[in-house]
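Internal ticket #5521
Category: modeling
Description: The requester needs a full-assembly model to guide mutagenesis choices. All entity lines are attached below as received. Residue total reported by intake: 677.
Assigned to: D.W.
Attached entities:
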Amino acid sequence: MRADFSQPQRQSSIGILVMFFYTLQQYARALWPMIVIWIFKFDEVNKLYFFLGMLTVFVSIGVVSYLKYLNFTFFLDSENEEFIITDGVFNKTKTAIQLRKIQQVNINQSFIQKLIGVYELDVDTAGSNKKEGAIKAISHELALELKSRLLENEELQRVVGTSETTLEETEQKLFEVAHPFIKISVLSLLKVGITSNYGKSIALLLIFFSTIFENLQNFGDESNVYKDKVGSYIDKNFVFQTILISILFLFGVVLVVNVVRIIFKYYDYKITRQKGSLLLSFGLLNTKSTIIKPEKVQITTVTRNYFQRKMGILELKIRQATSGEKEEQKSIIEIPGCSATERDSILKLLFHKIPEKGLMLQPNFRKLIFSVFLSIGLPLFGFIAVGYWLEPLIFEYIYLVPAYVVVIGLIQYFRFKNSRLFIHENFIIKQSGAWDISNDIIEPNKIQAITTSQLFWHKKLNIGSIILHTAGGNIAFQLGDYSVIKQKINLWLYEIETSDSNWM
Amino acid sequence: MENFTNETINTRQLPIFEEVTFTNLHPKYIWVVLINLALFIGILILVPILVSMFKPELLSGRVWLIIGAVIPIFSVLLVAFSIIGFKKKGFAFREHDVLFRYGIIATNTIVIPYNRVQHVALHEGFISRYFSLAKIEIFTAGGSSSDIEIPGIDKEQAEKIKQLLMRKIQKQL
């Protein structure tokens, strides 16, 4: 029996709980520094007021979520071919989504939803950046039914276009869905966690510690006492040792955090093939699922560092066409911990063949000089200028200068050495990076526009830069052989302009 | 399939984008640039003058000296660069794509094939309208860095260019 969606209906009644937790989460996220202070100052607060306050907060959140539940309805208007969602407690909103504009319907499950046993249904349309329709609590059968009804339109068009699906094809499809062709094991995720994202993890840790530190400072008297004690403890002889130990400790924390983060995010990563698209699902607590349509893919990036090469893993990033720039970050799809053969099979699915590296371009050595000037010369000049004219005290840190010069110099040198542009008939591959070496792969027909740039004193040297703009981001290559670049641009323009190739 | 051919392209005979002759912006447009600059520099000078009249103690004499020296140098440089920038800007409409050249120290050329254009807009600024000039904006799906804005085109001509582009886009569909 088919479920009836023609009448306005509410979510599953257990959805009140989901609403409750989501609202609670929102408040908690906004107020967490206050909560931390509360917990520390628990003894000083009047207990009665505290519990009364907590009770009011919980009751009001409960009432709000009940009202939210009552006022949220959705239904399918089959006459106008629209999917209509009404919501809001005080300000009511009515969202009407035309069925033919629906691009994608995702069924997701966050941790809370997993606990309660309901699913979330997101409707994605072509028109806008944000997700327009989201039903927060719906049973799995109902979600599947609604998904198929929402996408019926598209199916119809497809059936008209192609011949009817035979029994064999349906069986094939069922087989494809049931047997993911790539599964990423916990071991690979462990490897990824150990070898990647050092910068990101350190930044996260810094943000975390600085918020804690700020909140500690707000305590007032108690922390002052603490500081005095610590101050007398640390002898100058121990400073070096402490720094070394804390750096080691920090590195350990970074590693553990990174491994845990990666496993939480990507646990049970499965990739299935469906009608030529890739269906991904992953996540330990929040299960996410997305679809990659090969024709929408703009830039594919293969990243690998020294350790990862030794361990035989690599990371894939796929950028799809976006409607807005804000969305750009979100629409990057990461596939961590693939092996080389898995990479090849994914690339084959996306491009129908394995990308080849063709003619190689390398940047002129002036690029190295320029980046060294920018990253070492200018900061050093600034340092000396500040020390000389404004604040001589900073010369006490002069011992940091050689370390900075060596580290940044090495990074710039390797970045220069790895910088390459490969031009093949069907592919353009840009290689870059100092430690994590990435290869950005695009097809020439994905190019939206081309910018060339040449400094006037580089005319005689015949070197120049190129930026290839695609709907998923830009690819830039600096100071290559300008006559080769120009010749290739003419060829690409010819190819783009003579064919009606589909870039999306 | 019978008509399908796949002959080798002679890359030497391809049209060469770097040898296109560019059309300069309308000569009247330099006045628009200069008036805009005059307004900007006017504010830049007016603010310190007002401060020095009503609250001279806010900054020390040495800072006033630096401000007095920096603003004229900055203004002269700004005017010089704007004039050079105006002279360097140029555009060309080929059969299949549009080219725009700009840049003072570096010469940048951006090419957009017509079959990648998403939409075209005509923009008239407050001062430009007085000189009956308009700006053509050409958008692609590649984000703001790959859009072209050609200022200083005669309004009638701009309208014609827009019509031409619209025809080119619609023919692709």
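Resolution: model delivered.
Comment from assignee: Residues 156-167 of chain A have pLDDT under 50 and may be disordered.
Ticket closed.
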